[in-house]
């Protein structure tokens, strides 16, 4: 995978290796299939808590010295067992929040007719920006800054950052020099997954991806899975 260009070496500082694991939260209790976005009040389901515990077990032996999460409940609840396993206080960073979306609070998914509603068309004119929500470039800026801050707090060790699917995928795409607009069904960022950025000094030199809780993730929610009517609504992530 492609590293991101960075500053020249500086008196050995770039020899410091820091790993920032960016985790997507676990499954959320959302029986009505709402795109919850940044709305408060959406918590992990029982399965989501099992996912969080699984990842905490997976990371228990790692050199984690800093744990930080988006302010949304589902991210905080996912991060809590990881912080507890390492005897750390859980930090919060507003920059890790879910992407803004005009369809927040509505259903918007496969087979629900959302794309046939004239009132929605004005929000769908530019998928490259995108026109229905927070610009991809803005997500890159805030996520890169949040990751850099976590790297600084855990320099020479490891950090765990809990965020949401779209911001995670967008910052990974930027680092790996892919276009930012994409097919949402092809994001490699399943529930409770880890996208791990390795820094040498202040440069990202590699990106890894793992799914410690893969066996707990419903098949239709795995990356690349075929959409299933009634089960693939854009719940927010």
UniProtKB/TrEMBL annotation:
InterPro entries: His_Pase_superF_clade-1, His_PPase_superfam, PGM_Phosphatase
Gene3D superfamilies noted in UniProt: Phosphoglycerate mutase-like
GO cellular component terms, A-Z: cytoplasm
Gene Ontology molecular function terms on file: phosphatase activity
One Pfam entry name: His_Phos_1
Annotated protein name in UniProt: Phosphoglycerate mutase
Lineage of origin: Bacteria, Bacillati, Actinomycetota, Actinomycetes, Kitasatosporales
């Amino acid at each position: 995978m492609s590293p991101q260009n960075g500053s020249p070496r500086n008196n050995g500082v770039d020899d410091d290796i820091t790993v920032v694991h960016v985790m997507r939260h676990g499954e959320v209790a959302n029986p009505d299939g709402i795109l919850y976005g940044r709305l408060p009040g959406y918590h992990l389901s029982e399965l989501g808590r099992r996912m969080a515990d699984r990842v905490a077990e997976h990371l228990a032996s790692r050199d984690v010295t800093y744990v930080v999460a988006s302010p949304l409940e589902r991210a905080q609840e996912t991060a809590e067992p990881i912080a507890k396993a390492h005897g750390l206080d859980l930090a919060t960073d507003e920059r890790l929040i879910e992407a803004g979306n005009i369809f927040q609070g509505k259903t918007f998914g496969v087979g629900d007719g959302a794309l046939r509603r004239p009132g929605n068309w004005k929000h769908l004119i530019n998928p490259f920006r995108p026109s229905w929500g927070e610009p991809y470039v803005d997500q890159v800026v805030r996520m890169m800054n949040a990751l850099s801050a976590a790297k600084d707090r855990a320099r020479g060790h490891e950090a765990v950052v809990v965020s949401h699917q779209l911001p995670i995928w967008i910052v990974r795409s930027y680092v790996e020099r892919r276009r930012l607009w994409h097919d949402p069904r092809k994001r490699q960022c399943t529930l409770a997954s880890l996208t791990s950025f390795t820094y040498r000094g202040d440069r990202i030199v590699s990106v890894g991806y793992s799914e410690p809780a893969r066996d707990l993730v419903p098949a239709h929610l795995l990356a690349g899975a075929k959409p299933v009517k009634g089960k693939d609504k854009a719940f927010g992530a």
